[in-house]
Amino acid sequence: MKSILTSGFAVSVLLLGSLACGTGAGAQGNSVQREAISPISVSSKAAVPMSKNKIVLNKQTARFVAAGKVPGLGVHTGMTKSQVQKIYGKQTDSFYYFGGEFFIFERLPNTAFCFEGAGGKFSSVLIESDDLSTKTFASVKKTLGKPDTEGLDEMGEFAYQMLYTYNDNTMYFQSYKGRTMVSTLLIIFR
Fold first, then answer.
1. Contact of 185 with 162, CB cutoff 8 Å
2. Residue 31 and residue 169: Cα distance in Å, rounded?
């Protein structure tokens, strides 16, 4: 299957504004307190778990995202493009989305990374459903609990979306086709 990240997807979403690379306003709030989560280390020196190049959604996800880490992908905020390239190989493509340039790497073709600021630090990730361990909205809710926001996309790009916010870092689960299957996950780190 051809990745939606390289098949015209980026062109159609340029109208959505400048949110992904930390330059716009996203969902507000801190939903970490809404469920009990067993303690794990989320210090900047803590290892980010890797899981065969799929983002891991479990009861620990809130703590990792709150700390600026993408569980399952082995990346965290502050990493440079060259550090991500060491993990996922050379850059194969790039496109503009939500006001920022996103890069795709050879060993993770269904995921794109945005780097911004001085030194180009990792700030956002766009993940196609092929790289998600959880693929339905129902399973996301079962795992992460009630979302901060859910419903029709007011911008009209997606048929349905759910948002979770952890320490101002927002996870946008989105669908092009309805309320059942997740098409993409966008995580914006502030």
1. no
2. 10
- Can you tell me the distance from the alpha carbon of 173 to that of 170, in angstroms, rounded to the nearest whole number? 10
List, edge to edge, every strand of the sheet that includes 108-116: 91-97, 100-105, 108-116, 121-128, 184-188, 169-175, 160-166, 149-151
Please state the domain extents for the chain.
4-188
Q: Which of 169, 152, 181 is nearest to 26 (CA)?
A: 169
Dihedral through CA 83, CA 85, CA 87, CA 92, nearest 10? 160
pLDDT at site 21:
57
The C-alpha atoms of residue 143 and residue 156 are separated, in whole angstroms, by: 27
| Alpha-carbon dihedral sign for residues 172, 113, 83, 2 | positive
The pLDDT tens digits of the residues spanning 8-61 come to 333 223 223 334 554 433 333 333 222 222 222 223 333 434 445 678 889 899
> pTM higher than 0.85 for the full model?
no
CB 98 within 8 A of CB 16: yes
Q: Give the pLDDT confidence score for residue 8 in this predicted structure.
A: 34
